[in-house]
Automatic annotation (TrEMBL):
It comes from Symbiochloris irregularis. This is Alanine--tRNA ligase. Residues 3-467 form the Alanyl-transfer RNA synthetases family profile domain. Monomer. It is found in: Mitochondrion; Cytoplasm. Consists of three domains; the N-terminal catalytic domain, the editing domain and the C-terminal C-Ala domain. The editing domain removes incorrectly charged amino acids, while the C-Ala domain, along with tRNA(Ala), serves as a bridge to cooperatively bring together the editing and aminoacylation centers thus stimulating deacylation of misacylated tRNAs. Catalyzes the attachment of alanine to tRNA(Ala) in a two-step reaction: alanine is first activated by ATP to form Ala-AMP and then transferred to the acceptor end of tRNA(Ala). Also edits incorrectly charged tRNA(Ala) via its editing domain. The chain holds residues 84 to 550 of 1002 of the full protein. Belongs to the class-II aminoacyl-tRNA synthetase family. Alax-L subfamily.
Length: 467
C-alpha cells in the first residue's frame, strides 16, 4: 500500500518531464569542476550555466543526483534525516520560468502528485522576499501562519562574495500539527523535516556589495528522496525506508541482532553501517580509490568507520562486501552503472577492509594499554597518546573516541590537534593541498548548503584542507 522510494523518484522526474524539463542523468560523485571535492548538490553539474560560463542545451532540466556531504557525517545515525550519501531530486530553470512557477510546481508535486496533506506542509521564505511570501499566500494559498520568514543564514544563497545569488524558499513537513502554530520552530526536528529547497537566483552581487537584477534568472532546487520516503512511508527516520532498510537489516543479521529490539547505541551503529556502506559503494563505483588525500581519504575513512562499527556490534570476520551486495542490489534506480561495476567495487572495498583489519589487530593491544592507563589514573587519553594511535596504528581520532567512550574515558582533543599541527608543519613541503576555496566554490557551496561543521573531515592530517 505504501509508496516505494523508486516510485517517488519516478513521479518526481515524470512530473517535471511532462512540464518541459529534460530528464538528465546524475553526474558522477567526482565533479568535473576541479575545485570541488565531491558532488554535494544537483546544481553542481549546471554551475557553469548558472554562472554564464556555458550555454544551456535545454531551458529546463530534471535529475536525481547522487550526493555526498562530508559535513553531515557526524549527523549520520544521530539525526533521523542526514546521510553521508543521498539522492537529491531537482528541477532547474535556466533563464526560463521563475519564482511563481517554481512555487506552484513544488506545491502541486508535493501535495497532489506525492500526496502530502496540504495542511501539513509549511514553507519558509527569505525575510526580505515579499514576492515569495505573497506567491505562497495568495497564489498557492498557503495560510500565512504556515509561512515563516528566515534570515540570510538559512534562506539566502550566494555564489561567493560577488556573482549570482538570491533568496531561497524551503518546504517542511509537520509531523505534529496538534502542537499548533504559536511559537512553531521550523528547526525543531522533533516536529518538522525540511524536504525541498527552492533557490531563486535573481541577482548579481557587485564589487561594492549592491545587488543588480540578473538578466537570466534561474531556478535551482533540491528534494531529498530519502526524506520524502520517510514521510510517505510513515517511518521515524530515513533508515527505515525501503531505500536503506535492507542494508541495515543485513547488518543486523550479521550481528545476530533484531534492529527493532536493539538499544539506541546499537541502532545508531546499524544506521552508520547502512549509510556508510552505501556511500562507499557509490564512491567506489564512480572511481574513487582509498588513499590518504582528497576524496580517496573520505572513502578510506568511511570504510574504516564501517569496519570499526561492525566490530563494535560484534560482527565477526570480513563483512563489507556482504553489505555492499545489498547496496548494489538497490542501486539501479539511482545509478544504472553500479551493478555493472559490482565486482570491481567489492574487490576494492574488500582490499581496504582487510588492510585496515590488519592495522587494527596490531594496534588493538596498544589501544587497550592506553585506555587502561587512562582509566587507572582517572584521566583523559592525552594528545600525544591519541596521536600515536593515529599516526602509528591508523586509528582516526573519532574511532579512538568511540572506543574510549565505551569505557567513559575522554580524549584530550586539543592536545591531539596540537600534535597534528606539529606533524603538519613537519610535512608541509611534501603535502599536497587541494584548495576548494579557489574559484570561490567553497564560499558558494557553503553559503547554499550550510557551512561545514565537521572539522575532522575538513583537514586531511598533514595534507592540508580538503573541504
Ligand atoms: P538540513 O537543514 O536538513 O541539513 P539542508 O538545508 O542542508 O538540509 P539543502 O542544502 O537545502 O539541505 O539540500 C536540499 C535538500 O536535500 C534538503 O531539503 C534535503 O531534503 C536534502 N538533504 C540535504 N542534506 C541531506 C543529507 N545529509 N541527507 C539526506 N538528505 C539531505
Ligand atoms: Mg536547511
Ligand atoms: Mg535547505
Ligand atoms: Mg544541511
Amino acid at each position: 500500500a505504501c509508496i516505494s522510494g523508486a516510485e517517488i523518484r519516478e513521479r518526481f522526474l515524470k512530473f517535471f518531464e511532462e512540464r518541459g524539463h529534460k530528464r538528465l542523468p546524475s553526474s558522477s560523485l567526482i565533479p568535473e569542476d576541479p575545485t570541488v571535492l565531491l558532488t554535494i548538490a544537483g546544481m553542481l553539474q549546471f554551475k557553469p550555466i548558472f554562472l554564464g560560463q556555458a550555454s544551456r542545451q535545454h531551458a529546463r532540466a530534471t535529475t536525481t543526483q547522487k550526493c555526498v556531504r562530508t559535513n553531515d557525517l557526524t549527523n549520520v545515525g544521530v539525526t533521523a534525516r542526514h546521510h553521508s550519501f543521498f539522492e537529491m531530486l531537482g528541477n532547474f530553470s535556466f533563464g526560463d520560468y521563475f519564482k511563481a512557477e517554481a512555487c506552484a510546481y513544488a506545491w502541486e508535486l508535493s501535495t497532489r502528485v506525492l500526496g502530502l496533506a496540504p495542511e501539513r506542509v509549511w514553507v519558509s521564505v527569505y525575510e526580505h522576499d515579499d514576492e515569495a511570501f505573497h506567491l505562497w499566500r495568495d497564489k498557492v494559498g498557503v495560510p500565512q501562519e504556515r509561512i515563516q520568514r528566515l534570515g540570510e543564514d538559512d534562506n539566502f544563497w550566494a555564489s561567493g562574495p560577488t556573482g549570482p545569488c538570491g533568496p531561497c524558499s524551503e518546504l517542511y513537513y509537520d509531523f505534529h500539527p496538534e502542537r499548533g502554530h504559536q511559537g512553531a520552530d521550523l528547526n525543531d526536528d522533533t516536529r518538522f523535516i525540511e524536504f525541498y529547497n527552492l533557490v531563486f537566483m535573481e541577482s548579481n552581487r557587485q564589487q561594492d556589495g549592491t545587488l543588480q537584477p540578473l538578466a537570466a534568472k534561474n531556478i535551482d532546487t533540491g528534494l531529498g528522496l530519502e526524506r520524502m520516503a520517510q514521510i510517505l512511508q510513515g517511518v521515524p527516520n530515513n533508515y527505515e525506508t525501503d531505500l536503506l532498510f535492507p542494508i541495515l537489516n543485513k547488518a543486523a543479521k550479521l550481528a545476530h541482532m533484531d534492529y527493532h529490539k536493539a538499544d539506541e547505541r546499537q541502532k545508531t551503529a546499524l544506521k552508520v553501517l547502512a549509510d556508510h556502506t552505501r556511500a562507499c559503494t557509490y564512491l567506489a563505483s564512480d572511481g574513487v580509490l582509498p588513499s590518504n588525500v582528497g576524496r580517496g581519504y573520505v572513502l578510506r575513512r568511511l570504510i574504516r568507520r564501517v569496519v570499526m562499527t561492525g566490530r563494535l556490534i560484534g560482527i565477526k570476520g570480513a563483512f563489507i562486501t556482504k553489505l555492499a551486495d545489498v547496496a548494489i542490489e538497490l542501486s539501479p534506480g539511482c545509478d544504472p552503472n553500479v551493478q555493472a561495476s559490482a565486482r570491481r567495487i567489492k574487490k576494492e572495498l574488500e582490499a581496504e577492509e582487510s588492510r585496515f583489519s590488519a592495522t587494527l589487530e596490531s594496534g588493538e593491544k596498544r589501544l587497550n594499554e592506553v585506555l587502561a592507563a587512562a582509566k587507572n589514573e582517572s584521566r583523559a587519553v592525552s594528545g600525544p597518546e591519541a596521536f600515536m594511535l593515529y599516526d602509528t596504528f591508523g586509528f582516526p581520532l573519532e574511532i579512538t573516541q568511540e572506543l574510549a567512550s565505551l569505557h567513559d574515558i575522554q580524549i584530550d582533543v586539543e592536545g591531539f590537534e596540537e600534535e597534528m599541527e606539529v606533524q603538519r608543519k613537519r610535512s608541509k613541503d611534501s603535502a599536497r593541498t587541494i584548495d576548494l576555496n579557489s574559484g570561490n566554490l567553497l564560499g558558494d557551496l557553503a553559503a547554499q548548503f550550510g557551512a561545514t561543521e565537521f572539522t575532522g573531515y575538513t583537514h586531511i592530517q598533514g595534507q592540508g584542507k580538503i573541504v
